[in-house]
Amino acid sequence: MRVLGCLLTASILLAGCANVPMASPGANADGKRFDPPAPGQAVLYLYRNSMLGSEVMFNLSDNQQPIGSLADKTWIRVEVAPGSHLITCNIPSYAPLTQNPAQAATVNVVPGETRFVEADIWPGLPLNPRCSTTEVAADKGRAAITAGNRAMGATWSN
């Protein structure tokens, strides 16, 4: 009976976690090699590494163009043109007029660079979570990518 109770509790907890389309194991391993970008390009790794708010997914955009969605312990690698990139995230809200908008990160990249941006929950009123994006140091970003799994981006498939 105790085992049944544990299984029921685990299934309820897992049902509350957000799910996003995941990349293949090969694509996951490829991204964790941290290969340099194609000539004339830069790389952004965007990740989420927080259990807080695990029941919601974060939708990410670069200069208002969709990048993809993140659940807890997931990441996306995107090759981008050099220049300024405004990385925003949003979470579906049930009380959209009650809080300030999410905080965004501006990342200026040059050809050949690899940069890391963390998406994190920003506590808000009940039923109204927000997320923020922040550029982080390479060692912190690499550790999070290595510990996570690759989500599929908006512009590619396995």
Describe this structure as you would to a colleague:
The chain is α+β, with helices and mostly antiparallel strands and 158 residues long. It has one domain (18-150). Helices cover 20% and strands 35% of the residues. The protein contains three helices and nine strands, in the order H-H-E-E-E-E-E-E-E-E-H-E. It has helices at residues 2-15, 25-31, 138-147, and strands spanning 42-48, 58-62, 65-70, 74-80, 83-90, 105-109, 114-122, 130-136, 149-150. The protein has a five-stranded mixed sheet with strand order 8-7-1-4-9, covered by helices on one side. It has a four-stranded antiparallel sheet with strand order 3-2-5-6, with no helix packed on it. A hairpin with a 7-residue loop joins strand 7 (114-122) and strand 8 (130-136). It is globular and about 45 Å long.
Question: How are the elements arranged and paired?
Answer:
Blueprint: H1 2-15, H2 25-31, E1 42-48, E2 58-62, E3 65-70, E4 74-80, E5 83-90, E6 105-109, E7 114-122, E8 130-136, H3 138-147, E9 149-150
Parallel strand pairs: 1-7, 4-9
Antiparallel strand pairs: 1-4, 2-3, 2-5, 5-6, 7-8
Which shape, going by the Cα principal axes?
globular
Gap between N and C termini, in Å?
42 Å
List the quaternary state of the chains: single chain
Low-confidence runs = 3-16
What is the average of the pLDDT values? 81
Total domains: 1
Strand order of the largest sheet: 8-7-1-4-9
* Residue share in helix: 10-25%
Order of helices and strands: HHEEEEEEEEHE
Radius of gyration: 17 Å
Instruction: Please work out how many helical segments DSSP would assign.
Output: 3
Proportion in β-strands: 35-45%
Q: Main β-sheet: number of strands, strand sense, barrel status?
A: 5 strands, mixed
Number of strands: 9
Structural category is: alpha+beta
